[in-house]
Structures are given as C-alpha cells and as structure tokens.
Task: inverse folding
C-alpha cells in the first residue's frame, strides 16, 4: 500500500472521528427547542458560536504549522473536542452553557481540520497530492454524515446526553490516531520571514485570496444549510398529514454522503479544466437551488428529500476545488499562513450563515410558514452570488 494511501486514510479517519461532535447540536435541535424553549435566533447563535470559536483560534493554530509539526496541533485540537463534548454532555442546561461548550469545541476543530491537511501535505508531496487533498476535504462530509446518523440514532434510543457523549468518545479515538502519525521536521521558513500572525504576504497573493473569499461564501451557504436542515425537513414532513418517509436526521446523513461524492467529483472536474470558471458554475447553480428549495417545503415529502439531496450535491461540488486552489496558489513557506486565512474567512462565513438563517426565520414568521423558509434559504443564495465575483476579480488573474 502506497504512502499516500496510508497517510490519507489515517488523516481522513482522524477528521471523520473529530467531526462526529460538529453537528450534534443541529441534529438535536428539535429536542432543544422543546426542552430549553429556544428561539430561532438563540438556536442560530448556538449553531454559529461553534464556528465562531473556530474562527477565533484558527489563525494562530494553523499559522503554527509553518513553525512546528502540524501533528502536535492536531493532537491538541482533538483532545479539546473530547473535553468540550464531554462538558456539553454532562453540564449543558440551556443557552449560556451550550454557547460555552460549543465555542470550545469549535476551537478544537480549528486545531484539527486545516492542521490535519497541513500534516498530510507535509508528509506527502507527490504527483497525487491534489487528489489526496480532495479526499481529505471531502471527508468533512463523511464526518457530517456520521454526526447526523449516530447522534440521531443514539438520541432516539438513549437520550441526547449519551448522543453528545458519543462525539466525545470519537474525538478521543482521533487523538489516539493522531499520536501514531510519524513526526517530521519543522517546515523551512519562507525566503522573507515574517512574524507569526503577519498575514500581509498572504493578503497580497491575489490568486490565493480569490479562492479564500470564494470559500468564505461557500461556507456561509453550506453551514447555514446544514445547521437548519433537520428542522426544515421536520417542518416539511409535518405539512403532509399522515405522510411518511425517512427521518430528518437520516436524510441529513444521506445528504452528507452525497456531498462527499460531489466534492471529490467536483475537484476532479476543476483539476481538468479552468478551475475558477468551473467553481463559478457550481456556485451559480447552488445559488439557484437555494432560491428554490425553501419554497418547495409544501411539496410531497419524498420530492423535498430529492431536492435537498440534489442541493447538497451542488453546494458541495466546489469545496475541495476551492481548498486545492488555495494550497496550489500559496507561496512557498506560507502554506500554513495561507490555510489559516483560508480557514479563518471560511469559518467566519460558517459562523454567520446559521445565525443569518435564524434571524431571517424569526423576522418572517418564525419558520412556521413556507414563505418563511423560502426567504431563509433564498438569503443563503444571495450571499452565494458573491463567490463567482471574487473568483473573477482575483483568482482568474
């Protein structure tokens, strides 16, 4: 078995295990609406603060991988997820405790996701590196599927606290796997050295910033959808008197698996063509789907499930292609700093997207009508239109 396959497999497993906690709150949101009496805006804050914690920490943690072995950062990140998920399972009682533990878990993901990618590219720099990057980033969707599936199943059988605890146990397993990674020497410094958090050279790299800004728009739409998908599906299912179908958490898991395949396929298409143009086409199609899916909530539930699966495929098709573009456009010696900005901008979008959807829902009727959901989804599509603009202005140059 080749070195690339072994490294990719181990790092993909680390990421998948670490992500099981990521959408635990989204999967359990109907439970918390009933048990804690949350408003849509409060739920949006809890969903978004996870990515807010990520955003606060990611610049420092990913930049450190330009100076120390990324393996050490990944170990610390997965251990933090373990502690935060355990704290939520044991002590969360409402809005404020939920905000605290979800923010801390987001900090843990900041030390896991992009540092894990850096650990991969530092250990394998061969001809198939773009493909290994695509598989790694697509694993985010596999982790998402496991998060919705396992948390939903465990909650149905044992309650929400054991369901959250399962994410903690998975993060502990990820920590053990990270400790098994081979060590490497610290990467060589760039020709023109800068301070740890001096990102001016990255910001001046126009092609890289095109992909970075596109990723921010992508994350706004993607995580806005994923954070509210279960609630939307439950609303649609409830509109059909006596209608049956797969549980919303099951559909969300299937959506994530479809998204994983779409991310890998999209990366392959982008690698064989004009990358900025291909990504822009995906983004425009995704924005169009966002404008339609929310208004389709009253259709038969089976049709809504099909539309949601298709939307998840389209929305994810540009993910790995954007990250690969940023990696390839990065200046030698500044991969860590470039990935830090890439992830920072992306997860600012990920933090704001769920909150924005919650605000639109509250302003348009509280998510109790088809119009309310249609406007909430359409708001994501409007933001999605800025991605092709960033790519045209920056990346194509």
Result:
């Amino acid at each position: 078995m080749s070195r690339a396959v072994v490294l990719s497999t181990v790092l993909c497993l680390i990421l998948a295990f670490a992500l099981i906690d990521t959408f635990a709150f989204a999967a359990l949101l109907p439970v918390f609406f009933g048990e804690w009496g949350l408003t849509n805006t409060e739920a949006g804050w809890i969903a978004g603060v996870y990515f807010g914690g990520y955003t606060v920490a990611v610049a420092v943690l990913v930049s450190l991988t330009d100076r120390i072995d990324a393996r050490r950062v990944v170990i610390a990140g997965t251990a933090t997820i373990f502690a935060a998920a355990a704290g939520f399972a044991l002590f969360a009682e409402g809005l404020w405790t939920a905000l605290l533990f979800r923010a801390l878990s987001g900090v843990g993901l900041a030390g896991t996701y992009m540092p894990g990618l850096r650990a991969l590219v530092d250990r394998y720099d061969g001809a198939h590196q773009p493909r290994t990057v695509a598989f790694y980033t697509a694993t985010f969707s596999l982790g998402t599927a496991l998060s919705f599936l396992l948390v939903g199943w465990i909650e149905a059988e044992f309650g929400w606290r054991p369901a959250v605890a399962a994410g903690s146990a998975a993060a502990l397993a990820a920590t053990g796997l990270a400790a098994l990674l081979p060590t490497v020497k610290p990467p060589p410094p760039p020709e023109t050295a800068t301070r740890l958090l001096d990102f001016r050279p990255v910001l001046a790299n126009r092609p890289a910033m095109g992909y970075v800004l596109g990723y921010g728009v992508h994350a706004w739409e993607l995580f806005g959808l994923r954070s509210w998908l279960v609630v939307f599906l439950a609303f649609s299912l409830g509109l059909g008197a006596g209608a049956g179908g797969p549980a919303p958490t099951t559909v969300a898991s299937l959506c994530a698996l479809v998204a994983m395949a779409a991310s890998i396929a999209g990366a392959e298409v982008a690698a064989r063509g004009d990358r900025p143009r291909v990504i822009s086409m995906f983004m425009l199609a995704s924005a169009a789907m966002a404008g339609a899916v929310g208004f389709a909530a009253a259709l038969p539930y089976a049709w809504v499930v099909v539309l949601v699966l298709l939307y998840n495929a389209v929305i994810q098709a540009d993910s790995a292609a954007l990250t690969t573009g940023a990696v390839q456009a990065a200046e030698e010696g500044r991969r860590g700093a470039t990935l830090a900005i890439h992830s920072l901008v992306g997860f600012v979008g990920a933090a704001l997207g769920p909150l924005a959807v919650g605000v639109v829902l509250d302003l348009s009727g509280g998510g109790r009508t088809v119009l309310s959901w249609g406007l909430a989804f359409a708001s994501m599509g409007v933001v999605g239109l800025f991605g092709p603009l960033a790519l045209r202005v920056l990346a194509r140059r």
Observations:
- The chain is about 80% helix and 0% strand.
- The chain has a mean pLDDT of 87.
- The domain at 3-182+204-395 is CATH 1.20.1250.20 (Growth Hormone; Chain: A;).
- The CA atoms of residues 11 and 116 lie 7 Å apart.
